Amino acid sequence: MLTDTNLILLARLLLGGAFLVFGIRNVRNVDGLTAALTVRGLPLPRVAAMIGVALQIVGGALTAVGPLGAIGGLALIVFVVLATVLFHNFWDYSGPDRATHVNATIMNVGLAGAFLLPIAAAL
């Protein structure tokens, strides 16, 4: 039977697990992420890319399992906010590209809301 506790666990597994997989995949893409951050003018772009990947992996794992889900949720909120500002800066685009980045921003806002779940569960 699905209880509130089971639904919260399932939500945490799905949300955290997805970002854990994204982070693991991005380990192989640090060079590409570094190049994108370099173009954006971010200081220490490789370090920033590695921090982003670490936020995905650690935040995803903590959100998915374990007693530190609230910390994982907070880490992933930080990640999606930074990713939105750095990679989905729709205000710098026009036409179809702008729409793509607006959609990504809306999705990331929704994900940030979803990552409040493990924080709320810990309260």
Give a structural overview.
81% of the residues lie in helices and 0% in strands. By secondary structure, it is mainly α. Helix 1 (4-27) runs antiparallel to helix 3 (45-64), helix 3 packs antiparallel against helix 4 and helix 4 packs antiparallel against helix 6. The protein is globular. It starts with a helix and ends with a helix.
Descriptive keywords:
globular, 123 residues, mainly alpha, 0% strand
Rounded mean pLDDT is: 91
Q: Helix/strand-derived class?
A: mainly alpha
| Shape assignment | globular
Uncertain parts: none
Compute the separation of the termini in Å. Answer: 24 Å
Helical fraction: over 70%
* Rg from Cα: 15 Å
The helix-strand sequence is: HHHHHH
* Main sheet attributes: strand count, strand direction, barrel closure: none
Number of helical elements: 6
| Number of DSSP E strands | 0
Strand content: under 5%
List the helices and strands and how they pair.
Layout: H1 4-27, H2 30-39, H3 45-64, H4 69-87, H5 95-114, H6 116-122
Helix pairs in contact: 1-3, 2-3, 3-4, 4-5, 4-6
Brief synopsis:
This protein has six helices and no strands. It is mostly helical and 123 residues long. α1 runs antiparallel to α3 (45-64), α2 crosses α3 and α4 (69-87) runs antiparallel to α5 (95-114).
